[in-house]
Design brief:
The protein starts with 9 loop residues before the first strand and ends with a strand. It contains ten helices and 19 strands. The protein is globular, with a radius of gyration of 25 Å. The chain folds into two domains: about 325 residues, Vaccinia Virus protein VP39 (Rossmann fold, 3-Layer(aba) Sandwich); about 80 residues, no CATH class. The longest helix is centred in the first third of the chain and has 18 residues. Helix 1 crosses helix 2, helix 3 packs antiparallel against helix 4 and helix 4 packs across helix 9. It is an alpha/beta fold and about 425 residues long.
């Protein structure tokens, strides 16, 4: 690994993995915000990059990663021994200000198709919840982030709690934040893995990961896998930067495990409905049937023939026609930007890398990974008596959050 004071880096190809690994250290004496030699970010090979840096000032080029999956230190929960670390601010407002500072830099390094999955928990302070997730949500929205989902992670098999006058906490929040409405999403691919082909919803039942190591708060593998499959492209054009998107087509296939679906398929066969009838049902939906007619008018874009076929099918099926509006979908192909350039793997960033779970799962799923931390997984002793100056950007960010923010422009080993 590169030593402090040395801007060189090393890359190696571990046998049998196909993943190029690199570690970069940035010394305090005027280290560049964008290090030399990071051209491989646009190349087609799979890699893992570990960086010694602060999550509020990441030395990566603009628009260089496709997804952020991370869990910052929770407010007043654990002290990792660094002056100015995120999580030890005096007030909830100061903690939220520090996260906003980090989110600003993450927006800079995200492509316009990128988004953030932020795992955040709450803290009891003075015998009351500090409402940290809600504060972060509101502050992020005020700062231009689009809150796409508030995912509830329910912890299976949580640790016992000593409190006798309140319920034990068994959930945390995962905020899905997007910078633009162009963000990449592959709900179909995610649903095929976690939802039997249907949208699984925003409650994730994930067991806690047992940790026998030194890190106090490891990520569950499944949490990272869900975020990556949902929002990180597996291929991105190395020329224009557009991700390949899944092309979906509807089928007439229903879930035979559901009694209503079995009855719908039986009626369709008995009445001799054709694929054209089923396609007509799916084209018109339910907006012109039953109670929906009182509140919806439909799009009005279907042809007279489609409407005729849909009416025949709905008459034959009765209320069971609705089953075909939720028929299974399948992948018909993948989009192509037409550049003719090679495609690189999607790149996942974890600004609070910890034990490196996000990077490991990213590589397993065929995505490249960048991990940032004050202490890298292979160097648990952290900064060796030195300090990390995160530069003018953080000082500017600090001035934008004057109410209670305790951000420090220097991070040192305690």
């Amino acid at each position: 690994m590169a030593k402090h004071g040395d801007r060189s880096s090393r890359m190696q190809e571990p046998k049998g993995t196909g993943v190029a690994e690199m570690q970069v250290a940035f010394p305090p004496d005027g280290a560049p915000r964008t290090p030399d030699g990071l051209g491989f970010l646009r190349e087609a090979s799979l890699f893992r990059l570990d960086i010694h840096a602060d999550a509020r000032a990441i030395p990566l080029p603009h628009e260089s990663v496709d997804l952020v999956v991370t869990s910052p230190p929770y407010w007043k929960k654990r002290d990792y021994g660094f002056v100015g670390q995120i999580g030890q601010e005096e007030t909830p407002e100061g903690f939220v200000g520090a996260l906003l500072c980090a989110l600003r830099d993450w927006r800079r390094v995200l492509t316009r198709y990128g988004s953030v999955f932020l795992n955040i928990g709450d803290t009891y302070h003075n015998k009351a919840l500090a409402a940290i997730p809600g504060r972060v949500e509101a502050a992020a929205a005020t700062n231009g982030w689009i809150l796409r989902n508030r995912i509830i992670w329910t912890k299976i098999g949580g640790m016992p709690e000593p409190a006798a006058n309140r319920l034990a906490n068994r959930h945390e929040y995962i905020l899905h934040l997007a910078a633009t409405h162009e963000y990449f999403s592959d709900v179909q691919g995610y649903a095929e893995r976690f939802g039997n082909g249907s949208n699984p919803g925003d409650v994730w039942h994930i067991p806690l990961r047992r940790n026998m190591g030194t890190h106090l708060a490891p990520f569950p593998d499944e949490l990272v896998e869900r975020a990556i499959l949902l929002a990180c492209p597996n291929a991105v054009c190395s020329k224009c930067g557009k991700p390949r998107r899944r092309l979906i087509e509807r089928t007439a296939e229903l879930d035979p495990a559901r009694p209503q679906a079995r009855r719908a398929m039986q009626l369709a066969a008995e009445k001799g409905l054709t694929p054209a009838h089923i396609a007509a049902i799916q084209a018109t939906g339910i907006s012109d049937a039953g109670k929906a007619m009182q509140v919806q008018s439909g799009s009005g874009k279907n042809s007279a023939e489609v409407k005729r076929l849909a009416a025949e099918a709905k008459l034959a099926l009765g209320g069971y026609f609705r089953e075909f509006t939720f028929a299974r979908k399948r992948t018909a192909g993948w989009s192509d930007c037409g550049c003719g350039a090679v495609f690189r793997p999607g790149i996942v960033l974890d600004p609070f890398q910890g034990t490196g779970t996000t990077a490991r799962i990213s590589n397993m799923l065929g995505r490249s990974a960048v991990g940032v931390d004050l202490v890298l997984p292979t160097r648990r002793e952290g900064w060796q008596g030195g300090v990390l100056d995160v530069g003018d950007d953080q000082r500017t960010c600090r001035s934008d959050n004057p109410s209670g923010s305790s951000l420090s422009p220097r991070v040192a080993k305690a």
